[in-house]
Amino acid sequence: MVKAVERQYTGPADLRAMQSLAERIWSPASHCHVGDLAWQRFEHVGREPAWRTRLWEADGQVVAWGWAEAGHLSLLVDPAWPELAGSVLDWASPSEVKVLDGEKHVITALERRGFQVASDAPFHHYMSRSLAEVPSPALPDGFVARPAGSADVDRRVEVHRAAWHPSRVTVESYRNVMAAWPYRGSLDWVVEAPDGRFAAYCLIWLDAVNSVAELEPVGTDPAFRGMGLATAVCLAAMRAASEAGAEQAIVYPVDGYPAVKLYQGLGFTPYARTFTYRRP
Ligand SMILES: CC(C)(COP(=O)(O)OP(=O)(O)OC[C@H]1O[C@@H](n2cnc3c(N)ncnc32)[C@H](O)[C@@H]1OP(=O)(O)O)[C@@H](O)C(=O)NCCC(=O)NCCS
Protein backbone atom coordinates (compact mmCIF):
# COMPACT_ATOMS: atom_id res chain seq x y z
CA MET A 1 0.00 0.00 0.00
CA VAL A 2 1.46 3.36 -1.03
CA LYS A 3 1.69 5.87 1.79
CA ALA A 4 0.75 9.50 1.17
CA VAL A 5 3.49 12.04 1.79
CA GLU A 6 2.59 15.49 3.11
CA ARG A 7 4.31 18.80 2.50
CA GLN A 8 3.78 22.54 2.63
CA TYR A 9 2.34 24.54 -0.28
CA THR A 10 5.16 26.23 -2.18
CA GLY A 11 3.51 28.34 -4.90
CA PRO A 12 1.32 28.50 -8.02
CA ALA A 13 2.39 25.08 -9.36
CA ASP A 14 0.92 23.58 -6.20
CA LEU A 15 -2.35 25.45 -6.72
CA ARG A 16 -2.53 23.84 -10.15
CA ALA A 17 -1.94 20.44 -8.52
CA MET A 18 -4.72 21.16 -6.01
CA GLN A 19 -6.99 22.03 -8.95
CA SER A 20 -6.03 18.72 -10.58
CA LEU A 21 -7.43 16.90 -7.55
CA ALA A 22 -10.64 18.95 -7.79
CA GLU A 23 -10.91 18.04 -11.48
CA ARG A 24 -10.08 14.35 -10.97
CA ILE A 25 -12.65 13.74 -8.20
CA TRP A 26 -15.32 16.20 -9.34
CA SER A 27 -18.82 14.80 -8.82
CA PRO A 28 -22.11 16.06 -7.37
CA ALA A 29 -20.70 14.88 -4.02
CA SER A 30 -17.62 17.15 -4.20
CA HIS A 31 -17.74 20.75 -3.02
CA CYS A 32 -14.85 22.03 -5.10
CA HIS A 33 -14.69 22.98 -8.79
CA VAL A 34 -11.41 24.02 -10.43
CA GLY A 35 -12.80 27.56 -10.69
CA ASP A 36 -13.36 27.85 -6.94
CA LEU A 37 -9.66 27.52 -6.23
CA ALA A 38 -8.68 30.06 -8.90
CA TRP A 39 -11.26 32.63 -7.79
CA GLN A 40 -10.76 32.21 -4.04
CA ARG A 41 -6.97 32.30 -4.29
CA PHE A 42 -6.78 35.39 -6.57
CA GLU A 43 -9.86 37.56 -5.96
CA HIS A 44 -7.90 39.56 -3.36
CA VAL A 45 -4.23 40.36 -2.91
CA GLY A 46 -2.27 40.36 0.30
CA ARG A 47 -4.04 37.50 2.06
CA GLU A 48 -1.40 34.81 1.49
CA PRO A 49 0.41 35.46 4.81
CA ALA A 50 -2.77 34.53 6.69
CA TRP A 51 -3.13 31.20 4.87
CA ARG A 52 -1.67 27.82 5.73
CA THR A 53 -1.89 25.30 2.90
CA ARG A 54 -0.71 21.68 2.91
CA LEU A 55 -0.75 18.92 0.30
CA TRP A 56 -0.78 15.12 0.58
CA GLU A 57 0.63 13.26 -2.43
CA ALA A 58 0.79 9.65 -3.56
CA ASP A 59 1.81 8.09 -6.88
CA GLY A 60 2.83 11.51 -8.16
CA GLN A 61 -0.50 13.21 -7.64
CA VAL A 62 -2.23 15.25 -4.96
CA VAL A 63 -4.72 13.08 -3.08
CA ALA A 64 -5.73 15.60 -0.38
CA TRP A 65 -5.17 19.21 0.56
CA GLY A 66 -6.07 21.59 3.34
CA TRP A 67 -6.28 25.39 3.21
CA ALA A 68 -6.63 26.97 6.64
CA GLU A 69 -7.28 30.57 7.63
CA ALA A 70 -7.82 31.55 11.26
CA GLY A 71 -10.13 28.84 12.62
CA HIS A 72 -11.59 27.88 9.23
CA LEU A 73 -10.47 24.96 7.12
CA SER A 74 -11.26 24.16 3.50
CA LEU A 75 -10.24 20.62 2.60
CA LEU A 76 -10.55 18.32 -0.36
CA VAL A 77 -9.84 14.62 0.06
CA ASP A 78 -9.88 11.93 -2.60
CA PRO A 79 -12.62 9.48 -1.47
CA ALA A 80 -10.16 6.67 -2.36
CA TRP A 81 -8.01 7.99 0.55
CA PRO A 82 -10.66 8.52 3.26
CA GLU A 83 -8.16 8.30 6.13
CA LEU A 84 -6.50 11.49 4.90
CA ALA A 85 -9.57 13.50 5.96
CA GLY A 86 -8.46 12.89 9.54
CA SER A 87 -4.84 13.77 8.70
CA VAL A 88 -5.89 17.13 7.23
CA LEU A 89 -8.14 17.89 10.22
CA ASP A 90 -5.41 16.98 12.70
CA TRP A 91 -2.88 19.17 10.87
CA ALA A 92 -5.17 22.24 10.69
CA SER A 93 -6.95 21.81 14.03
CA PRO A 94 -9.81 24.07 12.89
CA SER A 95 -12.78 25.28 14.89
CA GLU A 96 -15.07 25.31 11.83
CA VAL A 97 -15.29 23.33 8.58
CA LYS A 98 -17.80 23.64 5.73
CA VAL A 99 -18.54 20.44 3.78
CA LEU A 100 -20.97 19.29 1.12
CA ASP A 101 -23.57 16.80 2.31
CA GLY A 102 -22.15 14.12 -0.02
CA GLU A 103 -18.60 14.30 1.37
CA LYS A 104 -19.24 11.35 3.67
CA HIS A 105 -15.57 10.50 4.28
CA VAL A 106 -14.92 14.03 5.54
CA ILE A 107 -18.10 14.04 7.64
CA THR A 108 -17.09 10.73 9.23
CA ALA A 109 -13.68 12.16 10.19
CA LEU A 110 -15.30 15.31 11.60
CA GLU A 111 -17.81 13.35 13.69
CA ARG A 112 -15.05 11.07 15.01
CA ARG A 113 -13.33 14.21 16.32
CA GLY A 114 -16.48 15.47 18.02
CA PHE A 115 -17.46 18.16 15.49
CA GLN A 116 -21.19 18.87 15.33
CA VAL A 117 -23.44 20.49 12.74
CA ALA A 118 -23.94 24.22 13.44
CA SER A 119 -27.64 24.46 12.64
CA ASP A 120 -27.57 28.28 12.82
CA ALA A 121 -24.83 28.66 10.18
CA PRO A 122 -25.64 30.02 6.71
CA PHE A 123 -25.45 27.39 3.99
CA HIS A 124 -25.03 27.17 0.23
CA HIS A 125 -27.41 25.49 -2.16
CA TYR A 126 -25.48 23.65 -4.87
CA MET A 127 -27.59 24.05 -8.01
CA SER A 128 -27.17 22.75 -11.54
CA ARG A 129 -28.68 23.12 -14.97
CA SER A 130 -28.18 21.32 -18.26
CA LEU A 131 -26.65 23.46 -21.00
CA ALA A 132 -28.28 21.44 -23.79
CA GLU A 133 -30.63 24.32 -24.56
CA VAL A 134 -30.03 27.82 -23.28
CA PRO A 135 -32.48 30.54 -24.37
CA SER A 136 -31.23 33.74 -26.01
CA PRO A 137 -30.85 36.63 -23.57
CA ALA A 138 -33.34 39.50 -23.77
CA LEU A 139 -31.92 42.95 -23.01
CA PRO A 140 -33.47 46.41 -22.63
CA ASP A 141 -32.91 48.76 -25.60
CA GLY A 142 -29.35 50.05 -25.82
CA PHE A 143 -27.85 47.41 -23.49
CA VAL A 144 -25.34 44.97 -25.00
CA ALA A 145 -24.01 41.63 -23.67
CA ARG A 146 -20.45 40.72 -24.63
CA PRO A 147 -17.28 39.17 -23.21
CA ALA A 148 -15.05 41.62 -21.32
CA GLY A 149 -11.51 41.97 -22.69
CA SER A 150 -8.25 42.85 -20.99
CA ALA A 151 -8.76 46.48 -22.13
CA ASP A 152 -11.98 46.54 -20.04
CA VAL A 153 -10.43 45.60 -16.74
CA ASP A 154 -11.15 48.95 -15.02
CA ARG A 155 -14.88 48.84 -15.79
CA ARG A 156 -14.95 45.11 -15.11
CA VAL A 157 -13.61 45.73 -11.61
CA GLU A 158 -15.98 48.70 -11.08
CA VAL A 159 -19.08 46.59 -11.75
CA HIS A 160 -17.86 43.85 -9.45
CA ARG A 161 -17.12 46.35 -6.67
CA ALA A 162 -20.52 48.02 -7.11
CA ALA A 163 -22.34 44.68 -6.88
CA TRP A 164 -20.40 43.48 -3.82
CA HIS A 165 -19.79 46.81 -2.03
CA PRO A 166 -17.66 46.93 0.09
CA SER A 167 -15.29 44.75 -1.95
CA ARG A 168 -11.55 44.09 -1.80
CA VAL A 169 -11.34 43.19 -5.50
CA THR A 170 -8.96 45.58 -7.28
CA VAL A 171 -7.55 45.99 -10.78
CA GLU A 172 -4.39 44.26 -9.54
CA SER A 173 -6.27 41.29 -8.08
CA TYR A 174 -8.52 40.98 -11.12
CA ARG A 175 -5.48 40.85 -13.41
CA ASN A 176 -4.30 37.93 -11.27
CA VAL A 177 -7.72 36.27 -11.73
CA MET A 178 -7.45 36.75 -15.50
CA ALA A 179 -4.00 35.14 -15.47
CA ALA A 180 -5.15 32.13 -13.43
CA TRP A 181 -5.87 28.73 -14.95
CA PRO A 182 -8.55 28.00 -16.25
CA TYR A 183 -9.76 31.60 -16.80
CA ARG A 184 -11.03 32.23 -20.33
CA GLY A 185 -11.83 35.77 -21.49
CA SER A 186 -14.50 34.29 -23.77
CA LEU A 187 -16.44 33.18 -20.65
CA ASP A 188 -16.18 36.48 -18.70
CA TRP A 189 -19.37 38.27 -19.76
CA VAL A 190 -20.70 41.75 -19.06
CA VAL A 191 -23.76 43.80 -19.93
CA GLU A 192 -22.74 47.25 -21.10
CA ALA A 193 -25.23 50.09 -20.51
CA PRO A 194 -25.95 52.74 -23.15
CA ASP A 195 -23.67 55.21 -21.30
CA GLY A 196 -20.73 52.74 -21.39
CA ARG A 197 -20.91 51.62 -17.76
CA PHE A 198 -20.81 47.90 -17.10
CA ALA A 199 -24.13 47.10 -15.43
CA ALA A 200 -23.93 43.34 -14.77
CA TYR A 201 -21.51 40.47 -15.20
CA CYS A 202 -21.18 36.69 -15.06
CA LEU A 203 -17.81 34.97 -14.88
CA ILE A 204 -17.80 31.29 -15.87
CA TRP A 205 -15.01 28.83 -15.10
CA LEU A 206 -14.94 25.77 -17.35
CA ASP A 207 -13.79 22.37 -16.14
CA ALA A 208 -13.22 20.97 -19.62
CA VAL A 209 -12.50 17.43 -18.38
CA ASN A 210 -15.89 17.10 -16.67
CA SER A 211 -17.69 19.52 -19.04
CA VAL A 212 -18.93 21.50 -16.03
CA ALA A 213 -19.20 25.31 -16.10
CA GLU A 214 -19.25 27.13 -12.78
CA LEU A 215 -20.81 30.60 -12.47
CA GLU A 216 -18.56 32.46 -9.99
CA PRO A 217 -19.22 35.25 -9.37
CA VAL A 218 -22.33 37.00 -10.77
CA GLY A 219 -23.38 40.55 -9.97
CA THR A 220 -25.42 43.59 -11.01
CA ASP A 221 -24.62 47.19 -10.08
CA PRO A 222 -27.41 48.30 -7.66
CA ALA A 223 -28.24 51.15 -10.10
CA PHE A 224 -29.32 48.52 -12.65
CA ARG A 225 -30.99 45.85 -10.54
CA GLY A 226 -34.44 44.40 -11.22
CA MET A 227 -34.10 44.95 -14.99
CA GLY A 228 -33.38 41.33 -15.88
CA LEU A 229 -29.69 42.05 -16.52
CA ALA A 230 -28.26 39.28 -14.31
CA THR A 231 -30.62 36.86 -16.02
CA ALA A 232 -29.49 38.08 -19.44
CA VAL A 233 -25.75 38.05 -18.73
CA CYS A 234 -25.92 34.55 -17.20
CA LEU A 235 -27.77 33.26 -20.27
CA ALA A 236 -25.21 34.85 -22.58
CA ALA A 237 -22.29 33.41 -20.61
CA MET A 238 -23.92 29.96 -20.40
CA ARG A 239 -24.45 29.93 -24.18
CA ALA A 240 -20.74 30.69 -24.61
CA ALA A 241 -19.85 27.92 -22.15
CA SER A 242 -22.05 25.49 -24.05
CA GLU A 243 -20.29 26.42 -27.30
CA ALA A 244 -16.97 25.80 -25.52
CA GLY A 245 -18.07 22.26 -24.67
CA ALA A 246 -19.76 22.55 -21.27
CA GLU A 247 -22.73 20.26 -20.75
CA GLN A 248 -23.76 21.37 -17.28
CA ALA A 249 -23.67 24.62 -15.31
CA ILE A 250 -23.37 24.84 -11.51
CA VAL A 251 -23.67 27.66 -9.00
CA TYR A 252 -23.75 27.89 -5.20
CA PRO A 253 -25.97 30.71 -3.84
CA VAL A 254 -26.35 31.23 -0.10
CA ASP A 255 -29.76 30.19 1.25
CA GLY A 256 -32.15 33.10 1.65
CA TYR A 257 -30.35 35.50 -0.72
CA PRO A 258 -31.99 37.03 -3.86
CA ALA A 259 -29.56 35.07 -6.03
CA VAL A 260 -31.46 31.86 -5.26
CA LYS A 261 -34.47 33.29 -7.09
CA LEU A 262 -32.26 34.44 -9.95
CA TYR A 263 -30.89 30.92 -10.48
CA GLN A 264 -34.28 29.24 -10.04
CA GLY A 265 -35.58 31.55 -12.78
CA LEU A 266 -32.65 30.47 -14.96
CA GLY A 267 -33.69 26.82 -14.62
CA PHE A 268 -31.19 25.72 -11.95
CA THR A 269 -32.35 23.12 -9.44
CA PRO A 270 -30.67 22.19 -6.14
CA TYR A 271 -28.70 18.93 -5.98
CA ALA A 272 -26.73 19.31 -2.71
CA ARG A 273 -26.11 21.70 0.17
CA THR A 274 -23.31 22.61 2.55
CA PHE A 275 -23.19 22.01 6.28
CA THR A 276 -20.94 23.82 8.73
CA TYR A 277 -19.38 21.63 11.41
CA ARG A 278 -18.01 23.21 14.59
CA ARG A 279 -15.88 21.89 17.38
CA PRO A 280 -18.06 22.04 20.52
C1 LIG B 1 -28.49 38.70 -7.26
C2 LIG B 1 -28.29 39.80 -8.30
C3 LIG B 1 -27.15 39.37 -9.23
C4 LIG B 1 -29.58 39.95 -9.11
O1 LIG B 1 -29.34 40.89 -10.16
P1 LIG B 1 -30.54 41.53 -11.04
O2 LIG B 1 -29.92 42.05 -12.30
O3 LIG B 1 -31.32 42.47 -10.22
O4 LIG B 1 -31.40 40.22 -11.33
P2 LIG B 1 -32.61 40.09 -12.40
O5 LIG B 1 -33.20 41.45 -12.64
O6 LIG B 1 -32.11 39.34 -13.59
O7 LIG B 1 -33.63 39.23 -11.55
C5 LIG B 1 -33.59 37.83 -11.56
C6 LIG B 1 -34.67 37.28 -10.63
O8 LIG B 1 -34.27 37.47 -9.28
C7 LIG B 1 -35.26 38.20 -8.58
N1 LIG B 1 -34.61 39.16 -7.71
C8 LIG B 1 -33.57 39.95 -8.01
N2 LIG B 1 -33.27 40.71 -6.94
C9 LIG B 1 -34.15 40.37 -5.96
C10 LIG B 1 -34.36 40.80 -4.62
N3 LIG B 1 -33.58 41.74 -4.06
N4 LIG B 1 -35.32 40.20 -3.90
C11 LIG B 1 -36.11 39.24 -4.44
N5 LIG B 1 -35.96 38.81 -5.72
C12 LIG B 1 -35.00 39.36 -6.46
C13 LIG B 1 -36.03 38.95 -9.65
O9 LIG B 1 -37.33 39.26 -9.23
C14 LIG B 1 -36.01 37.99 -10.79
O10 LIG B 1 -37.02 37.02 -10.62
P3 LIG B 1 -38.19 36.89 -11.69
O11 LIG B 1 -37.50 36.43 -12.95
O12 LIG B 1 -39.07 35.86 -11.09
O13 LIG B 1 -38.78 38.25 -11.80
C15 LIG B 1 -27.96 41.17 -7.63
O14 LIG B 1 -28.93 41.44 -6.64
C16 LIG B 1 -26.57 41.26 -7.02
O15 LIG B 1 -25.60 41.63 -7.69
N6 LIG B 1 -26.45 40.92 -5.73
C17 LIG B 1 -25.18 40.97 -4.99
C18 LIG B 1 -24.21 39.94 -5.52
C19 LIG B 1 -24.78 38.52 -5.47
O16 LIG B 1 -25.41 38.12 -4.51
N7 LIG B 1 -24.48 37.74 -6.54
C20 LIG B 1 -24.90 36.36 -6.66
C21 LIG B 1 -23.96 35.47 -5.93
S1 LIG B 1 -24.18 33.74 -6.18
From TrEMBL:
GO terms for molecular function: acyltransferase activity, transferring groups other than amino-acyl groups. Residues 143-280 form the N-acetyltransferase domain. Pfam families: Acetyltransf_1. Transmembrane segments: none annotated. One of its GO terms (cellular component) is ribosome. Keywords: Ribonucleoprotein, Ribosomal protein. This is Ribosomal protein S18 acetylase RimI.
